[in-house]
Amino acid sequence: MPNQRLRDALLRNTLGFDEVAKATGVDPKTVERWITQDRTPYPRHRHAIAAMVRETETYLWPDAVAPEKKKEINESEVVQVYAHRHAVPQEIWGHLIEQSKISISILVYAGMFMVDNPALIKTLRQKAESGVKIRLLLGDPASREVARRSEEEGIGKTTLGAKIRNALAVYKPLAEVSGVEIRVHGTTLYNSIYRFDDEMLVNTHVHGFMAAHAPVLHLRRLSGGDLFETYAESFQGVWDGAKPPKW
Fold first, then answer.
1. Verdict on whether the full-model pTM lies above 0.90
2. Going by DSSP bridges, is the β-strand pair 216-220/199-204 parallel, antiparallel, or unpaired?
3. Which is a Pfam family this sequence falls into (predicted)?
4. Are the CB atoms for 128 and 180 separated by under 8 Å?
5. For 45-72, how does the pLDDT look when each residue is reduced to its tens digit (9 = 90+)?
6. Are 3 and 9 in contact (CB under 8 A)?
7. Which of 44, 50, 93, 186 is most enclosed, with most CB atoms within 10 A?
């Protein structure tokens, strides 16, 4: 079976066999076998390719890393654990947004604490204009999932939907900015995800608690790790099933 993940990653980055061969010091035919025959490269070659296509080794070669090594890497991906989202220092949020060079991806229901920052829209616009890809994914205010979450938080059936509409109104000026995409989703949200290039804040959701009072994981992506990649794939799954908002 061919390694479709590796093939797609090279295509996305417009990399051919010759370029990969030159970067890894092997023959182009070897690179072709890595794809068409799903041969597993040596670790040094995996590191080089993963860096070139900005994917993890675990994603490109799920069975290549030994379990004990993978456990060590996964533990190292955790930078910090915060007992509550409100305990994350404000400067962390600002630093992560500011240092982003490639992409910013946000998955929430409302995320009102972010739009409370009056400089957020201006900052995101500047980031997009500098080439950063921005994806904003909010809850569908008319969905059953949002209404249920609102009731579970004890704030009434319609309150969370109203918050989402307020957040969308704040984000609306970004809708026409090149490089910014805004969608809404109707999924059961198990975690809010805030990704800034290869760093991520994951706000876990706890039944009966508002998101601000639930824990947050600060993750940093490492080649060969599973933890960061798990949440990245979760975001992509929700994004793929989402739709443009009704302004």
1. no
2. antiparallel
3. DUF5919
4. yes
5. 998 998 899 888 888 888 777 667 666 6
6. no
7. 50
